[in-house]
Design brief:
Elements (H helix, E strand, L loop, with lengths): L1 H23 L1 H8 L3 H25 L5 H25 L10 E2 L6 E2 L4 H4 L10 H7 L11 H15 L2 H12 L2 H15 L1 H14 L26 H16 L42 H9 L1 H8 L3 H32 L3 H11 L1
Antiparallel strand pairs: 1-2
Organism: Alca torda (Razorbill)
Protein name: Solute carrier organic anion transporter family member
Membrane topology: Multi-pass membrane protein
Amino acid sequence: LQIFLGALAFSFFAKGFSGSYMKSMSSQIERRFEISSSIVGIIDGSFEIGNLMIMVLVSYLGPRVHRPKVIAVGCLIMSLGAFLSVMPQFLMGRYNYERVTVTVDNSSTSVSACSPASSVGHPVTDATETPSAMKNFGCEKTTNSYLWLFVLMGNLLRGIGEAPVMPLGFSYIDDFSKEENSAFYIGLVRSSGMFGPTLGFLLGSFCASLWVDIGVVDIDAISINPKDTRWVGAWWLGLLICGAVNFVASLPFWFLPYSLTKEGGNEKLKISHLPVQGDHCKIDSPVQPQIKVYSIYLSIADFLPALKKLFGNPVFLVYIFLTILQYNSLVGMITYETKFMEQQFNVSVAKAIFLIGRYL
C-alpha cells in the first residue's frame, strides 16, 4: 500500500505539472499559430472534454478492472498527448516574427509587421488604413495553419488519460487501508500533487524566456526581446519534459497487484461486483481476477439506472454545482491571466508566468 501511495502521489504531481505548464503556455501557443484567443480557449477546454468523455464510466467500472494497470495506461495516454502536442514545432519550420501582427500603444489594435508605417519606424494609429496599405505595398497575407489541431488533440488525450487517476486511485486506497487512515492517505496524495502546478508554472516561466527555435537559430541575430508582443518562447520544450514525467509516473503501477492485503488484516479483499442497489459488497478469496467481457457488458447495462439514482440525491447535486462554480472561476482566470498581465502591466510573459507560479 505504501508503494501505491508513493506512485499515486507522483502521478498527481505529474498531471498537475503538465496541466499547469500547458495553461502557462496559452499565450505562446496563440502567437506561434497566429490564432485567436477563442481558439486558445477551445484548446484549453479540450482537456476537460476528454476528461468528461470517460470519467464517469471509468469511475463506475473501477471495482471491476485492474485499477493500477488502468492508472498506468492513463499516465501513458497523458504522456502520448504531451508528445503529440509537440509535433507542430517540427512540422511548421522556423518562426518568422517579422511578418506577425504587432500591437500598437498597448491597445487591442493590431497592424501587420510588413505595413509601410511600421517598416520605417512610425507606428500606425489608424487600423482602417492597414488593409489598403498592405495591398498597395504588396504584403502577402499569412496562410492560416491548422497545425494547432495537434495541440488540441494532444490536450484531449491528456484529459482522457487523467480521468482514471483520481477516482480509481482513491477507491484503491479506500478499499485496502484502515478506515481511520483512508482520509489521511488521500490528503497526503493530494498535498503531494500541489507541488505540480507550482513547478509547472516555474518551468513555463523558464521556457517562455527561451526563444522558440532554440538550438536552431542564432539568438544574437534576434532583434526582439521577451517583452515584445511577437516574442514566442520555447513552448514545446516543457511539453517534452511533461511527457517524460508522465511516462515515468506510469511505470510503478504495472507491477502492483489487482488486490492488496487489507491494512491491519491478513486477508486479501477483491471487490468483484458493486451492486446498483444495496449497501454490501461481495468479498472473495484471493484469486487472480479474470475480467470477463460479459460481466463488463452487464455492468455497462446497469450504468444508466445507477446514474439516475445518483443524480436523485439532492446533497450530491448541490456539491456538484458548487464544484462547477469553483472551477469555472479558477480555470478562466489561470488561462488568460498571463496575457492580461503582459498587456496591462507591460511585463514579459516569462515574468507573468513566474508571478502566477509564486501565487499558487
